[in-house]
Amino acid sequence: MVAGLVIFIHHIPAFSEDHSLHDHSSPSSTITAPSQKIAPSPKPSKVETFINQGLEKVQRQDYKGALKDFDNAIGLDKNHHIAYLYHADIHNQLGNYQKAVEDYVVAKKQNPTFPYIYTQQGKAYEALGNYEKAVENYTQAIKLYPEDGIGYASRGAAYHKLKDTKKAMADFKKAIEMNYGQADAYFYRGNLYAELRNNQAAIKDYQTAKGLYTKQGKQDGYLRVSLKMRQINEKT
């Protein structure tokens, strides 16, 4: 059983407007004269219907069905980067990392300034063992949204796997400075400290991460850090 998929945009009931993703400008004024009747909202397009159906199936963990719906949405609108993004996120979750990378490539072409896409593609590359490409994507995500600590935490983990301890530690520190609630940064830094046999520092970071994961309701993170702490205690 695959753990519940977390997609960056939560399910939204059938959209009541044409949400073209190519135009992020403010909508025109909807103020009308008192004598005018407000026109009813148009029904959602077929593309939006497929997307919402896919999101409903994600909620039920019917990932194959969701992929089919997103496929149908893409078939109707090959420029709908959100459909590609949902499609890619599911492939990422299911371990189809190469397919995820390919979908993220398309999504980036259609929306090159969206940092989330670069972060997610970085994760897919990291899962494939291509840490250099992961770093490249995380770096771009940081450039687009430097205020977010996630990019630094993720890049630090990739640097760790590249055996670049100095850069990894610097990124973890930066991630924590920017967001003290960044549980992953503490967890990743704890892993690095553990590898360096600084068990005291590792346990301290693991305890912080554990508390944050608990507060944030992230059970997977809680279980992961608990296992690491137990492994250290067994060795000492």
Question: In terms of topology, how is this protein built?
Answer:
Layout: H1 46-59, H2 63-76, H3 81-94, H4 97-110, H5 115-127, H6 131-144, H7 149-161, H8 165-178, H9 183-195, H10 199-216, H11 219-235
Please characterize this protein's 3D structure.
The structure is a single chain. With 236 residues, this protein is mostly helical. 67% of the residues lie in helices and 0% in strands. The protein has eleven helices and no strands. The protein has helices at residues 46-59, 63-76, 81-94, 97-110, 115-127, 131-144, 149-161, 165-178, 183-195, 199-216, 219-235. Residues 8-42 have low confidence and may be disordered.
Major beta-sheet overview: none
Number of strands: 0
Q: Please bin the fraction of helical residues.
A: 55-70%
Decide which structural class fits the backbone: mainly alpha
Radius of gyration: 21 Å
Low-confidence stretches: 8-42
Distance between the termini: 34 Å
The number of helical segments is 11
The average pLDDT score comes to 84
Strand content: under 5%
